[in-house]
UniProtKB/TrEMBL annotation:
Swiss-Prot/TrEMBL keywords: FAD, Flavoprotein, Oxidoreductase
EC number: 1.-.-.-
Enzyme class, first EC level, given as a word: oxidoreductase
Coiled coil: none
Protein name: FAD-binding protein
GO MF annotation terms: FAD binding; oxidoreductase activity
Keyword Signal on entry: no
FAD-binding PCMH-type domain boundaries: 43-221
Length: 467
């Protein structure tokens, strides 16, 4: 479908929607280069118009105008995505929702938080903790907006025990491609009323509708938490222990795996020392609960399982300072690895938990055979791996060809192990080809049919996910 060429009068109309506030609406040369890309960086395209929206009404009016005039629109939050989902591939309008950042209501009786999409993940945790409440999803990028987390169904480290973003979205207000505003779900705990449209919007990466309000489910805040850092002589041995931990009745909040190289990079990046770096591989576990006895019972059980499975030691972090030193290192692995090289790209495959060891061993072999540096860390407890391919000093042509080759090999391996293309970052533009290869054509056809039903003119975030 052809799109309208954006003109000055389109900008003037969008400006009028924003009540002529030139601080919030930008045209062509005035647009900051940041709007041309997200954290992936490799895919860039400048939009023609950017509006920093401040209400659902503005989003609705922009979409209505765009729909009537066939102008493509890309919604955007903090731009921290890693698959090019917020890149305006067809130009047109970018709606930046980061100014819509108000917390609207905390309902302590229904345990829900109603808020706008631009609220940052880090601010949600701080806000609800003051009321002794807890928002469990914990993706690594704390400066992401909740709208972006909802759009990608972000996961994070606590998924083992608590699940992912979708499990905590009770209701959504969304603007459809034609400008209509719909409310999906609500504060109800159960809902069997027709198709799960709310759950379709969650994880749709801004291709079906634009989230302008969300009602999140909260839990009572666990009163105590404790971390275990468990060194093993090899990564294989560490990861082979995970199914035994999961099978025990003592489910940790998080089970992460890491290797010495990532720890050393994090130490250098943070300028802080890590409690232990004598081993090649570690499991990092957290337990939370309401009493010291409850947590001790769980961690002692798991510590014994690990020692029986060949762990070299069990280091207990029971002070806030110790926990902070371990988790701040884990939290900056991505940035630390990025600092080690000139450019990198990532595979965030997810495989069944009992196949993690196989997959990570496979990446070590691939590093040797493909002669390119590959670093990994990830969520051992839920099978979601973050594997980074580093460019170092390769020239552009060699880098692109190696990257393509290595990624293809990894996605093929994930499919062989009955895994999926993305555990939490989404598909966006960068992973579209791999999604098509990994799913049956019938499933891709159904996805395309859903897109058509929501967006017959294909103006909302075109060129992403299943197109």
């Amino acid at each position: 479908m052809g799109y309208k060429e954006v003109e000055l009068r389109d900008y003037e109309y969008i400006l009028s929607i924003a009540e002529d506030d030139k601080e919030r609406v930008f045209f062509r040369e005035e647009i900051n280069e940041d709007y041309s890309h997200d954290e992936l960086g490799g895919i860039k395209k400048m939009p023609d118009i950017v509006i920093q929206a401040i209400s659902a009404d503005e989003v609705s009016k922009v979409m209505k105008y765009a729909y009537e005039n066939s102008i493509p629109v890309t919604p955007r939050g903090s731009g921290t995505g890693l698959v090019g989902a917020a890149v305006p591939l067809k130009g047109g309008i970018v709606i930046d929702l980061s100014r819509m950042n108000k917390i609207l209501e905390l309902d302590e009786e229904n345990l829900t938080l109603t808020l706008e999409p631009g609220v940052l993940l880090m601010d949600i945790g701080k806000y609800v903790e003051e009321f002794d409440l807890f928002y469990p999803p914990d993706p690594g990028e704390k400066s992401a907006t909740i709208g972006g987390n909802i759009s990608t169904n972000a996961g994070g480290m606590r998924a083992v025990k608590y699940g992912v973003t979708r499990d905590y979205v009770r209701g959504l207000e969304a603007v459809l491609p034609n400008g209509d505003v719909v409310n999906l779900g609500g504060k109800v705990v159960k809902n069997s009323s027709g198709y799960a449209l709310k759950d379709l919007i969650v994880g749709s990466e801004g291709t079906l509708g634009i989230v302008t309000k969300a009602i999140l489910r909260l839990l009572p805040l666990p009163k105590k938490a404790l971390s275990l850092l468990i060194p093993f002589e090899s990564l294989e041995r560490a990861i082979d222990t995970v199914p035994k931990i999961i099978k025990s009745k003592s489910i940790p909040t998080a089970i992460e795996f890491m290797q010495r190289e990532a720890i050393l990079a994090a130490e250098e990046f943070l300028g802080k020392s890590f409690p232990d770096k004598s081993s090649d591989a570690y499991l990092l576990l957290t337990f939370d609960g309401n009493s010291t006895e409850e947590i001790e019972k769980n961690y002692e059980n798991v510590a014994n399982i690990c020692l029986e499975a060949g762990a070299l030691d069990v280091l207990i972090s029971d002070t806030e300072e110790r926990q902070e030193s371990i988790w701040s290192a884990r939290g900056c692995f991505l940035e630390a690895i990025k600092a080690l090289t000139t450019e990198m790209d990532e595979v965030d495959v997810v495989v069944p938990r009992n196949q993690i060891g196989k997959f990570v061993t496979f990446t070590h072999e691939l590093e040797r055979t493909a002669n390119i540096r590959i670093k990994s860390f990830g969520h051992a407890g839920d099978g979601n791996l973050h594997i980074y391919i580093l460019r170092d000093d390769l020239d552009e042509e060699v880098w692109q060809s190696k990257l393509k080759e290595v990624m293809q090999i990894m996605y093929d391996k994930a499919k062989e192990l009955e895994g999926q293309v993305s555990g939490e970052h989404g598909i966006g533009f960068a992973k579209k080809g791999y999604l098509k290869e990994s799913l049956p054509s019938e499933c891709i056809g159904i996805m395309q049919g859903i897109k058509l039903a929501f967006d017959p003119k294909n103006i909302l975030n075109p060129g992403k996910v299943c197109e």
